[in-house]
Write a structure and sequence with these properties.
Structural class: alpha+beta
Strand content: 15-25%
Helix content: 25-40%
Length: 765
């Protein structure tokens, strides 16, 4: 008979459990906590914080930040049996019910930490029915989450009045430190504020807060919760607390990452906050000293070459300055690169084998299908070495190299290097792109130069913590990267700052400067074994400044940052790769010496890649004894001639000598009695441009210039329009004609019978 009530009781319990499980399945409880976004540095310290979606300072406290001291204090005050009950403390419930019944009012709520989490995530009116719902939800919470997870939720939801919630938010906004650095006195103060947020408001009621804190500390002492000396130190600790501003360092990167990871409560970056603060201050001071020159902004990116982690990210000089576009992110702003792409061009040419450091290039005026570039100083240097051309950032040799390797090939190289704007502009880009006629960002340029620092391997930049090691893709060979680095390390160059203090403290780096057309952008990108640093200086408005230049504006800031971050770097310098060797070349051309080269100089080259061309800076010419007439092999007499060496100059170099009235050895006129027709070396028509359209006003017809470049042995050229002789002239003499309308054929023949043709279209306006 006694077994029947027992069975009924057991059945009732099983039915209750089953019903609870069904209700748990039908009405699951999974708290959705909307955290404020916090950006942390490489060590986990908060460097920037944003309000949550509901405008709360609710920063998630990570488990390592809940120290034993914090946990012990909090549990003793709020729920001593937290680890022993299933979400509800039946003894506390019974005690509270007894007090409430016999006193007639609610003197004790019997809420566990689990129940408080339920109430904080789903606020309800304080009624007995809602209390039962709260208990049921607490049981559900305990079923699906561990005690550690529930404690973490509670720590993140503790209200502190206003819009501050959670221990971490309170620790940062009241004490300016993370939870793991709080003292016992500070922890105790933070645990009692939620019970009386108005009367114990930090900053305004500090004395009342101190007294309440000390009462609890005394209670801890009486209960033997902590050692006596620890309690005494806490009692004597002054309470200096006030409402602080949330951290706001690296604002541009923080905004960028928040947009990229909108629902991630903690975004761990690679930023080193000490370097970030230091560079932010350097940039601000640097720009403040140049505002009188109408230069108002700068951006800096610092990359660790070994890990590819971004250690400092400064998007503007002053984020809080709306007048100068402080909130514009200069790291990602698309700007004109000036000459900063030239190292990639030269490295590409090294890899194609077309040039070596001692290859001689002609820095003379040129017409490239209507494009006539000039150097920055508007002067021409004549024949120069590749090293000189890159170190001095000469424009015309760069355009000639780009023309040789082809614009499409170089555009594909830039696409591979991750230049997104260039990818979009590809169909509209021409030779001018190497002088800044395209769009790039500081981020893209810094990443490119980091590839040179990493032996030609291009890696993705890291802004957030990642365990993956850099695994780059080769953008240029290790050998080409070394040759470029060797050139960019030279200090005998015009883009070295003129200030003695800067040159005296010159860091050991390779660097390249750039100044965009109209002096709107000044660049200086540098690297050593440890860091790559990119610097941009200018105005976000695009306003040009006469004093703005990569050398004297951006480079001093670059040097200053390198000296503050990595002065006398212990990482050493780059060593020559195995496939870089040295050979003797002719100084006149940089080619392998021939019979015309009595002297030779050493030159580095890439084994198996660099071209092996014999020098041809001179050539044999047969002349009469007086040197007045030259002979070809067709008309060479049996006797009475001499064999002499004459300069084998390119047509553009001859034109340069003629324009500058520079003396050079001309080949004598060819034997006028010779009937041989020559085929190679026809005149190059440089004006007008092949395939171009020319519009002429009907009432005031303009004339069209005809100009060509001819070989050294040409004395006279003949100009034809639609196959009719128009005029004969000296080879480097420009003439003018009034062209007919429609499609027009322009021909130029020299006195050797060599001929060139182009077609243009002439229309009336």
């Amino acid at each position: 008979m006694k077994r029947v009530p027992f069975r009924k009781s057991l059945a009732a319990i099983l039915v209750t459990i089953l019903l609870f499980l069904v209700l748990d399945f039908a009405f699951p409880f999974s708290p959705k906590i909307h955290y404020a976004t916090q950006i942390t540095d490489h060590r986990g310290a908060v460097i920037h914080a944003f309000l949550s979606k509901d405008d709360k300072w609710r920063l998630q406290t990570a488990l390592p930040e809940i120290t034993p001291l914090l946990s012990k204090t909090l549990l003793y005050k709020e729920d001593q049996y937290f680890y022993y009950h299933p979400g509800i403390n039946p003894f506390a419930v019974a005690r509270a019910a007894f007090r409430n019944i016999f006193t007639g009012k609610r003197t004790s709520g019997a809420s566990t930490i689990t129940m408080q989490v339920v109430r904080l995530t789903q606020p309800r009116k304080r009624t007995y029915l809602n209390k039962l719902i709260e208990m049921a939800r607490a049981l559900q919470l305990e079923m699906h989450f561990s005690k550690t997870e529930i404690l973490q939720m509670y720590v993140n939801l503790i209200p502190y009045g206003g819009n501050i919630e959670g221990i971490k938010s309170a620790a940062l906004l009241y004490f300016g430190k993370p939870p793991q650095l709080l003292s016992l006195a500070e922890i105790t103060a933070l645990t009692i504020i939620p019970n009386r947020p108005s009367s114990l408001r930090p900053g305004t009621r500090n004395e009342a807060l101190k007294q309440a804190r000390n009462k609890w500390l005394t209670r801890f002492q009486e209960e033997g919760l902590f050692e006596k000396n620890i309690i005494e130190d806490a009692l004597n600790e002054p309470l200096q607390v006030r409402r602080l501003q949330a951290p706001r360092h690296a604002p541009h990167l923080s905004l960028r990452l928040k947009q990229q990871f909108p629902d991630q409560p903690i975004i761990s970056t690679t930023i080193k906050i000490h370097a970030q603060k230091q560079i932010e201050a350097q940039v601000l001071n640097f720009i403040n000293r140049r505002k009188m020159m109408n230069i108002h902004n700068a951006a800096v990116l610092v990359v660790n070459n070994e890990t590819m982690e971004v250690e400092a990210y400064v998007g503007s000089a002053d984020f809080d300055n709306p007048y100068d576009g402080g909130q514009v992110d200069g790291v990602r702003a698309v700007r004109s690169p000036g000459s900063t792409l030239k190292p990639l061009l030269y490295a590409t040419a090294f890899d194609k084998g077309t040039i070596t450091p001692k290859t001689v290039l002609n820095d003379v005026p040129g017409n490239f299908s209507g494009y006539e570039p000039e150097n920055f100083d508007r002067r021409f240097n004549g024949p120069v070495t590749t090293t000189f051309a890159l170190a001095n950032s000469l424009n015309i040799p760069a355009v000639r190299i780009l023309k040789d390797i082809s614009t499409p090939f170089f555009i594909n190289k830039m696409k591979k290097a991750g230049f997104k704007t260039v990818d979009k502009q590809a169909k509209d880009l021409g030779l001018s792109m190497i002088l800044g006629g395209c769009g790039v960002t500081l981020e893209e340029l810094t990443r490119l130069f980091a590839a040179f620092a990493n032996n030609g391997k291009l890696n993705a930049l890291k802004y957030t913590k990642s365990k993956s090691a850099p695994n780059g893709e080769e953008i240029v060979s290790e050998e080409a990267a070394y040759l470029v680095t060797d050139i960019l390390t030279q200090i005998t160059r015009p883009d070295l700052p003129t200030n003695f203090d800067n040159t005296y403290h010159l860091p050991k780096i390779a660097w390249k400067t750039g100044t965009s057309y109209g002096k709107r952008d000044a660049w200086s990108i540098g690297y050593n074994k440890r860091y790559t640093i990119g610097v941009w200086v200018g105005n976000f408005s695009g306003e040009g400044v006469p004093e703005l230049s990569g050398a004297n504006t951006a480079t001093p800031l670059l040097f200053s940052i390198f000296n503050s971050l990595d002065y006398n770097s212990p990482k050493g310098w780059y060593k020559s790769p195995a496939d870089i060797s040295v050979r003797q070349v002719c100084p006149a051309t940089g080619d392998i010496p021939s019979e015309f080269c009595p002297h030779a100089i050493p030159d580095q080259f890439i084994v198996g890649v660099s071209n092996y061309k014999k020098c041809q800076h001179l050539r044999w010419v047969f002349t009469d004894p007086a040197g007045k007439i030259s002979y070809c092999t067709y008309c060479l007499p049996e006797t009475g001639f001499e064999k002499k060496a004459y300069p084998n100059l390119a047509p553009e170099l001859i034109a340069f000598h003629e324009q500058q009235k520079l003396p050079y050895q001309k080949i004598p006129p060819h034997n006028p009695k010779c009937e041989r027709v020559f085929h190679e070396g026809a005149p190059l028509i440089v004006s007008p441009n092949e395939g171009s359209e020319y519009f002429i006003q009907k009432d005031e017809p303009q004339q069209l210039q005809l100009a060509c470049q001819a070989a050294n042995d040409v004395e006279e050229v003949f100009w034809y329009v639609n196959d009719k002789l128009t005029k004969k002239a000296k080879p480097h003499e420009g003439i003018f004609i009034t062209p007919p309308m429609g499609r027009v054929k322009i021909s130029c023949s020299d006195d050797k019978g060599r001929n060139s043709d182009i077609w243009i279209v002439v229309r009336r306006m």
